[in-house]
């Protein structure tokens, strides 16, 4: 077996990100536990391949055990919306960047949570058992010489570390939230603008959002799954991709990144606005002059995008 060189270029990371579930050579899907091989072919092109195709690698950069992502990725053309006040829109244009909010700053106190506090005992005993078993059964060739009380002490410590890590994770995780829908939503106008007369909605798609962030493989983009915490938990790696059922109407798709080097409450990530913004819709409650204002501001910031009135104001016939 080739020695891993650990030489992972941006193009190689992008390749893995974009074809996550499949071998790029034979196209067969990975299943959990498979080994995936990242490296470069004999003509130096980046490759992300399965066991059967690994001989195509001239250089193996790194191997991974395949794990499913904790989220599903929308179709490239899936429409994503962001409803906002005009001031936020101007800020988007002037910073030419998307604002990612630190997850402990959201109103939803369950952001990043693994479950209901009253059901924590069940979670704890599951992970304690998992840790005890891992400590007692080290890899082949290593012998566990710990007494039962040592095993228990170590398992309890790992559980505490897991819990502290969960709290800390909220301060390291930043997200930009979007609403996935084919159509404009009357409810979202009300929910996400404090002053409806001066609100706009930016429409993009999964593909445009990803491209506008320069195909950055360190920014995950996926759907939130809504779960019933009375009967389930969010897994260790799932917590920022799960919300309570009561938020189902949001149909959220989020872009998520981790940053361990900042204390800030948010981050602006540079973004190609021409690629991101497919259309700007103006609030159904906006006065006629507001469309012109949005157009003027776009022009001032050198942005050439279509501005349309809300479809909710189309005229009916009876
Ligand atoms: Zn293959």
Give a verbal description of the structure.
It is a single chain. The protein is an alpha+beta fold and 318 residues long. The protein has three domains: 56 residues, no CATH class; 175 residues, no CATH class; 53 residues, no CATH class. The chain has eight helices and 14 strands. The strands form three sheets. Strands 4, 5, 6, 7, 8, 11, 12, 13 and 14 form a nine-stranded mixed beta sheet that branches. Strand 1 and strand 2 form a beta hairpin. The structure holds zinc ion (ZN).
User: Which class do the helix and strand fractions yield?
Assistant: alpha+beta
Q: Outline the low-pLDDT stretches.
A: none
Number of helices: 8
**Ligand roster:** zinc ion
Proportion of strand residues? 15-25%
N-to-C order of helices and strands: HEEEEHEHHEHEHEEEEEHEHE
- Counting structural domains, the number is 3
Q: Please provide the count of β strands.
A: 14
Main beta sheet: 9 strands, mixed
User: What is the chains' assembly state?
Assistant: single chain
Shape: globular
The CA-CA distance between the termini, in Å, is: 74 Å
Proportion of residues in helical segments: 25-40%
Radius of gyration: 24 Å
Average pLDDT works out at: 94
């Amino acid at each position: 077996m080739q020695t891993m060189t650990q030489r992972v270029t941006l193009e190689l990371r992008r390749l893995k990100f974009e074809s996550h579930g499949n071998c790029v050579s034979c196209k067969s899907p990975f299943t959990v536990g498979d080994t995936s091989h990242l490296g470069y072919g004999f003509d130096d092109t980046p490759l992300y391949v399965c066991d059967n195709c690994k001989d195509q690698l001239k250089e193996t950069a790194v191997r991974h055990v395949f794990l499913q992502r904790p989220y599903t990725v929308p179709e490239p053309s899936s429409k994503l919306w962001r409803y906002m006040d005009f001031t936020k829109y101007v800020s988007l244009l002037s910073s030419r960047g998307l604002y990612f909010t630190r997850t402990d700053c959201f109103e939803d106190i369950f952001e990043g949570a693994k479950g209901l506090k009253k059901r924590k005992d069940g979670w704890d005993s599951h992970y304690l058992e998992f840790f005890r078993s891992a400590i007692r059964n080290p890899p082949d060739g290593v012998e566990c010489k710990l007494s039962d009380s040592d095993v228990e002490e170590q398992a309890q410590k790992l559980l505490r570390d897991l819990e502290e890590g969960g709290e800390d994770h909220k301060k390291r995780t930043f997200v930009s939230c979007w609403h996935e829908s084919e159509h404009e939503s009357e409810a979202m106008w009300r929910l996400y603008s404090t002053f409806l007369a001066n609100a706009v909605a930016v429409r993009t798609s999964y593909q445009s959002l990803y491209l506008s962030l320069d195909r950055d493989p360190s920014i995950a983009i996926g759907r939130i799954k809504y779960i019933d915490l009375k009967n389930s938990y969010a897994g260790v790696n799932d917590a920022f991709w799960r919300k309570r059922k009561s938020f189902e109407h949001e149909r959220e798709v989020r872009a998520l990144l981790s940053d361990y080097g900042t204390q800030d409450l948010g981050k602006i990530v540079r973004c190609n606005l021409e690629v991101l913004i497919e259309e700007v819709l103006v609030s159904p409650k906006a006065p006629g002059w507001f469309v012109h204002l949005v157009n003027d501001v776009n022009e001032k910031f050198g942005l050439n995008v279509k501005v349309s009135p809300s479809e909710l104001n189309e005229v009916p016939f009876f």
